[in-house]
Write a structure and sequence with these properties.
This protein is mainly α. Among the domains are: 36-98, Electron transport complex subunit B, putative Fe-S cluster (3-methyladenine DNA Glycosylase II, Chain A, domain 3, Orthogonal Bundle), CATH 1.10.15; 101-275, Alpha-Beta Plaits (2-Layer Sandwich), CATH 3.30.70.20. The chain has 15 helices and eight strands. The strands form four sheets. It has a two-stranded antiparallel ribbon with strand order 1-4. The protein is elongated.
Length: 383
């Protein structure tokens, strides 16, 4: 009995040793040599394993980066330019900085803009909902509102707005990993450059129906009128399949298209509200009164009419002495019976008084003849 036990132990030990030697030989024979730099690159990676770089995880990215001849086609959106500089330093490559990006929801079909035509009572998943039908509104292109993008985001950068029914992206948390882009079955979310000071201009609509159909489904839809493309001085806007698109690499943020869009489908985000515009409005009235004082100076011209009244009394003064001699000529006063026409029945004859001065002018000539006669008498007396 004891011999059997000892024999069994010996046999098992020998078998174990043989198998160990076989495994050692196989490991040496089929050994896969791995570049030690892969571990170094993996250490500087953020470790999110989000797949935003296009690989299965950070380890796969590090392996591809080590084997790649350059890093031009590789970028870690979570780590950004800082991580890529570290990777380039380990591998001895040069890397170009890329503009930071952010996820943008290109749908403005809120509850107010896009009325619902039916009620969906099923699994709350955008993929399931999109597989069943076009959605619970008249727009077959818009956001379905089930929140698959929220579940796909590992950084908590997306949340659903209960008022609008649309996802909202928190730019401070978004790493542009693209998980939400891949999770959306409608392709509503897009990665775009953040822009200077996070300012961006984009068309918040992906509806490719004709203008009338799109506007009927959503009052804020792009109708493909092309007005934005006509006013854009940089050629950043194209209109294809009844839908306008702004190329963020060409857009200079002039916002001319925003003012031109008749439906408000083009959005300008994070632009500062300039106080100069309200200040400019009062400035114009301030400049307008300036010429008005010059216009008020014209009342000086009204002073000229003041000279006219001064002339009128001057005209009346010579008339007064003419009347005085007429007054001395009482015979003219005897002409008062001629004033009988001033009676009420003769009142409509205003011309009669106008003739009286002419009548009084004739007796005025008599005193002049009398003076001449007196002068002649004095001259005769002197002689």
């Amino acid at each position: 009995m004891t011999n059997t036990v000892i024999l069994t132990i010996v046999i098992l030990t020998l078998v174990g040793l043989v198998l160990a030697l076989v495994l050692y030989w196989v490991a040496k024979k089929f050994k896969v040599e791995e570049d030690p730099r892969i571990d170094e690159v993996e250490k500087v990676m953020p470790g999110a394993n989000c797949g935003g770089c296009g690989f299965a995880g950070c380890r796969a990215f590090a392996d591809a980066a080590v084997k790649a001849p350059n890093l031009d086609s590789m970028f870690c959106p979570v780590g950004g330019n800082d991580v890529m500089k570290k990777v380039a330093g380990i591998l001895g490559y040069e890397v170009k900085e890329k503009a930071p990006q952010v996820a943008v929801v290109r749908c403005n079909g809120s509850c107010a803009n896009r009325p619902r035509t039916n009620v969906y009572d099923g699994v709350q998943s955008c993929k399931v909902k999109a597989a069943l039908y076009s959605g619970d509104t008249g727009c077959p292109y818009g956001c379905l509102g089930c929140g698959d993008c929220v579940e796909a985001c590992q950084f908590g950068a997306i949340s659903m707005d209960s008022e609008t029914g649309l996802p909202v992206v928190d730019e401070s948390k978004c790493t542009a990993c693209g998980a939400c882009v891949r999770a959306c079955p409608k392709g509503v979310i897009e990665l775009r450059n953040k822009g200077p000071r996070s300012m961006r201009v984009f068309v918040s609509c992906i509806n490719k129906d004709k203008g009338g159909v799109a506007r009927k489904a959503c009052i804020a839809a792009c109708i493909g009128c092309g007005k934005c493309a006509k006013v854009c001085p940089h050629g950043a806007i194209t209109v294809e399949n009844n839908l306008a698109y702004i190329d963020f690499t060409k857009c200079k943020l002039c916002k001319k298209c925003v003012a031109e869009c008749p439906t408000g489908a083009i959005h300008a985000v994070n632009f500062p509200v300039l106080p100069a515009k309200p200040a400019a409005a009062p400035a114009k009235p301030a400049s307008a009164p300036a010429p008005k004082p010059a216009a008020t100076a014209k009342p000086a011209a009204t002073a000229k009419p003041a000279a006219a009244p001064s002339e009128k009394p001057a005209a009346t003064k010579p008339a007064a002495p003419l009347e005085k001699p007429a007054a001395t000529a009482k015979p003219a006063a005897t002409a008062k019976p001629a004033s009988a026409p001033s009676e009420k029945p003769a009142a409509p004859k205003p011309a009669a008084p106008a003739e009286k001065p002419a009548a009084t002018a004739k007796p005025a000539a008599a005193p002049e003849d009398a003076t001449k006669v007196n002068k002649e008498k004095k001259e005769a007396a002197n002689e």
